[in-house]
Amino acid sequence: MAQLMDIQRVEIGPENLTARVRMADGAPLMTSEDLQGTTRVYRLLPHIIEHACLGDAGDTFKACMGNTELAHLLEHVTVELLAQTDIAGDITSGRTFPIEGDPRSFDVEISCKDDVLTVAALLSAVWILDWAYTDGGDPVPDVDATVDGLRNLVASLGDEPGTSYKEKVKGEILADVQREYQEALAMREQEIAQREEEIEVARSEAEAAARERAEERARERARLEEERRRAEEEARAAQEAARQEEERARREQEEAAEAARRAEEDRLFEEVAREAERRTTVLMPDEGRESPEAVQASRDLPDAAVIEWQPKDVAPEPQAEPEADAPAPAAGEKDATATSESAPEPEPEPELEPEPRYAAPWEDEPERPAAPTNAEPLPDAADTSGSEGHIPGPQRVR
């Protein structure tokens, strides 16, 4: 019997087994190219058409079994043998992929709980297809015997080979993972160190920039504070200068007013003094009594002038000596002295002459009051002039 297909390699993973299958040159690629061989497979494994198959033709393998790749048929035959052993698990599945660039090569992937069982089932499926598509002669494959042989093979090996293989694979995987982890960790630590250096450099630059900005702000604040202080000092100096200038102007104004007042007082004093010089202080015949003109002139003068024009002190009048004790009057006689003293006659009060008002040079002379009719006649000029000690009264001159 000629070789229909060749298994070039087998890869066993944790969950799946992948076999690279190449169809022999001249062998059919599709089940439709040899329907008698396809029928022989169906008669050996009739339940194969009940497999779920999510292809383009339908939901089960029945819809595409008459026109599909022989590699696809190999997948379903292997799955059927595994399912009949009842030791391959509840669900067994597979997939078939064409190899790009080689139309006669395919990758058949089958779920693998036990690698020995899966490999044996795959080899048994290849043997069944070789028989079906090469005339189907004797001996006819015995499917039940093949399934029992698969069970016996797994039973004869026990769990040790599978466990050892799993431990070996697990160790290799862990070693690879640890190696990759160490490499990734070293690379990550290097990246972290480099990043930390970059962060440190950036932090240093940021701190330097922040210090520079803070110093610049401090300098700016100091400059503004200095300008404000200078402006306040200049404003205070200007206010002080204005106040001093105002004070100086006020003092000058007061001094000018005081000088004008003093000048006016001096002028008035000089005028009064000249007027006073022109008016002579005249004493009346009564000793120590001023004339009315002098009294009026003294009232018009300032205090200093009044003090200056006060009359000289007049000697006090001599007081009469008390008489010697007279003899006491006889009985029955009245004391004439006591009588005279007990009832003195009241002296008439002297009539005061109206004081003449002083007239300044620029005023009209005030009118004198008319002399009373009962006044004594003035003595003759000849007599008055010849009388001793008489001084004529002042004459008001315009």
Give me a quick take on this structure.
This protein is α+β, with helices and mostly antiparallel strands and 398 residues long.
How does this model look, in words?
This protein is α+β, with helices and mostly antiparallel strands and 398 residues long. Among the domains are: 5-158, no CATH class; 279-309, no CATH class. It is 52% helix and 8% strand. It contains nine helices and four strands. The chain has helices at 35-44, 70-85, 115-132, 143-157, 160-278, 292-300, 303-308, 336-342, 381-386; strands at residues 5-12, 16-23, 94-99, 102-111. Strands 1-2-4-3 form a four-stranded antiparallel β-sheet, with helices on one face. The chain starts with a strand and ends in a 12-residue tail after the last helix. Residues 35-129 form the Cyanophycin synthase-like N-terminal domain.
Question: H/E order of the elements?
Answer: EEHHEEHHHHHHH
What share of the residues lie within helices? Answer: 40-55%
Number of strands: 4
Overall pLDDT confidence: 77
Q: In percent, how much strand structure appears in the residues?
A: 5-15%
State the distance separating the first and last CA atoms: 186 Å
What sort of overall outline do the alpha carbons produce when their principal axes are compared?
rod-shaped
Protein name: Cyanophycin synthase-like N-terminal domain-containing protein
